[in-house]
Write a structure and sequence with these properties.
The chain is α/β, with parallel strands linked by helices. It has an eight-stranded mixed β-sheet, with helices on both faces.
C-alpha cells in the first residue's frame, strides 16, 4: 500500500495565485497525495453577483438549493481547474474530480437548519487507490450527492477528513495561511483530541479553525495516522504547524 498524504487547501487563499503556485510546488515534495480544496470566497462572490443570500452560522454556509447550484458550479468548475492547473505546472500529474464523479463521495443532510449542506457518509476509496497507483493526483471538489438532485455543499475540511480516514492516510495536512492553532497568542506545537471541544466551547477556536480541529478528530478516529494544521511552513519539517494527536493510552 502506498504511503500517502491528504492535503486540504484553504478556500480564501485560492484568491491569491502566487500562494496557490507556492502551495503546488510544496505539495510536489510530498507525493503521492490526494488534494481536497475549498472555495468559499469565490462562492460568496458569485452568490452576490447573482443576487443570492450570503449567510453563515458558526462558519457554515446556509445553502439554499440555488446557492447549492452555485457551489457545485464554482467548486467543480473554475476552482477545481485552477488547482489542477497549478499542480500540473509544478510537475504533479493532477486530475480534477468532484465528489459526484464515479460515486466518489456520498452524503446525507447535515443537522441544523442549514439547507442543502451535507456531511460525508461514504468515500469510494478504491477509486482513489487506482488513481494513485496510476501515478495520478486526485484533486477533489467537496460536493456530494445523496442519491438525487443537486449535490450537497460539504465542508472541505470534513471532506478531507473523510478521505484521509478512508485511505488510512499517513498524514492529513490542513493548509491555510495561519501557522497553526493559536492559544493566548502562541502557536501550539501539539494538541490532544480530548482538548478540542474545550477550545471550541471557550471560543479560542471558532469558525474555520473549529472546523479544522473537528476534522482532525474525525480523521484520527477513522484511521488516519497523523494530522497537522498550518501554513506552507508545514513543508519545512515534520514538527512544523500544530500536530493533533490521540491521547496516549496507559497500559493496564
Amino acid at each position: 500500500m502506498l504511503a500517502r498524504r491528504v492535503a486540504k487547501i484553504g478556500g480564501n487563499e485560492l484568491d491569491r495565485p502566487e500562494w496557490v503556485a507556492a502551495c503546488a510546488r510544496a505539495l510536489k515534495r510530498v507525493e503521492p497525495l490526494v488534494v481536497v480544496h475549498g472555495g468559499g470566497q469565490a462562492i460568496t462572490n458569485w452568490s452576490k453577483r447573482l443576487g443570492l443570500p450570503v449567510e453563515k452560522r458558526d462558519g457554515v454556509r446556509v445553502t439554499t438549493p440555488e446557492v447549492a447550484a452555485v457551489v457545485e458550479m464554482v467548486l467543480s468548475g473554475p476552482i477545481n481547474r485552477q488547482v489542477v492547473t497549478a499542480l500540473r505546472a509544478a510537475g504533479i500529474d493532477a486530475v480534477g474530480l468532484s465528489g459526484v464523479d464515479g460515486g466518489l463521495l456520498t452524503a446525507r443532510r447535515a443537522a441544523g437548519d442549514l439547507g442543502h449542506v451535507g456531511e460525508i457518509t461514504g468515500v469510494r476509496a478504491p477509486l482513489l487507490e487506482s488513481l494513485l497507483l496510476a501515478g495520478l493526483t486526485p484533486v477533489i471538489a467537496p460536493v456530494a450527492p445523496d442519491g438525487g438532485g443537486v449535490p450537497f455543499n460539504v465542508n472541505a475540511d470534513q471532506a478531507a477528513s473523510a478521505v484521509a480516514a478512508a485511505l488510512g492516510a499517513q498524514e492529513l495536512l490542513l493548509i491555510s495561511d495561519v501557522p497553526g492553532v493559536q492559544v493566548s497568542g502562541r502557536t501550539q506545537q501539539e494538541l490532544v483530541v480530548t482538548d478540542i471541544e474545550g477550545l471550541i466551547a471557550s471560543g479560542v477556536a471558532k469558525d474555520g479553525m473549529a472546523a479544522k480541529l473537528r476534522a482532525a478528530v474525525g480523521a484520527l478516529a477513522g484511521g488516519a495516522r497523523a494530522v497537522r494544521i498550518g501554513d506552507l511552513s508545514l513543508f519545512d519539517g515534520p514538527a512544523a504547524g500544530t500536530r493533533v494527536v490521540a491521547p496516549v493510552t496507559q497500559p493496564a
